[in-house]
Design a protein that fits this description.
Elements: E1 2-5, H1 10-22, E2 28-32, E3 39-40, H2 46-49, E4 61-64, H3 71-76, H4 78-99, E5 103-109, H5 137-150, E6 157-163, E7 166-167, H6 176-186, E8 190-192, E9 198-199, E10 202-203, H7 204-215, E11 222-226, E12 232-233, H8 234-243, E13 252-254, H9 267-271, H10 280-294
Amino acid sequence: MNIVIGSAGFVGQNLVEVLTSLDPDTPILRVDINEPCDFRIDISNTSDVGKLKEILTADSVVYFLSAISTNALCIDNPSLARSVNLSGLIAVLEACASAGIKKFVFASSEWVYENMSPNQLLISEESLSQSTLPHQLYASTKFEGEQLVACYNSVFETCIGRFGIIYGPKETNRCALDSFVYSALAGTTINIGAPSAGRNFIFIDDLCRALIFIGKPGGRIGIYNITHPEYVTLEDAADALLKLNLVTAEQVILGEAESKVRCVVPQRLIDEGFCFEFDLRAGLLEMFKRVSNER
C-alpha cells in the first residue's frame, strides 16, 4: 500500500501517476486537503491528522510531501509553516508508529545547503556541518523535519530526499526551465539576466522514480540528494532549446550578471545504481510535448 500525503501538489500528482504506471496493481491512497485525493485531512491540524490511523497498515509505504514550500510563503505565515512542516509531520510520524508501517519517505530540499560557501562545488549528502546549517525559515523547517524523521529509524525504515530544482508539467511555482518552455510555446522572448546561473535541475519523472527507488522497503535508509548528475547553466538550457529547434536565436536575450554556483550531487543515487532517464535535452523536449498536448 502506497500512501501519498500531499497528493494534490506538483510532486504528489506526478508521483501517483508514476507509481500507477510502474505497478498498476499496487493500491495507492491519495491524502490531501485539496483535490485530487481519496482521503481528506488538514496536515496543519494535528487532531485531523489522527484520522490517518483509519488507513495506515503494517504494509504501508508513506510518502510525506506536504509542506509550505517556499521561503516567501513561510515568512508570510510562519505559524502555518511550522504547523504543517513540523507539528503536522510529528503527528503523521506518531500515527505511522502506531500502525507499524514499513517505510516513511520525507520530502526535504536542497535549500538545507543554502548557508554553504556560494561557490562550493560538488555538495554531497555529507557536506552539511554545524557551521553551515540553514538560516532561512523554509530551509530550517526542512532540516528540523529531517531530524524528527531520523528519530523514528528504530520504529520503521526512513528515507529523506533532498529535492533539487524540479521542472516539468503541472508546476505552478515555476523554475527558470519551466518558464523557458512556456516562452518557447508562446513564441515570446526568453530574458536571461545571469546566463552562468545554474543548478542540477531534475525532470519531474526522474525525481518521482528516485522517490520510488529509495522508498522500496528492505534496506535503503538515510539522506539522498534527489538532483540530476548534470550541472546546467541557464545559458546551457537556452542552447538546448535552440538545438531542439523549439526557439529561435532572436527569442533568447543573454545578460551579463554573475551568479552564485551550487552543484548538489546525487552521490548516493549514483553509487547505488539509480538510472536517470532524462538529461537536459530529453527533459525539455518531453515537457514541451506534454504541455503542448494539454493545451
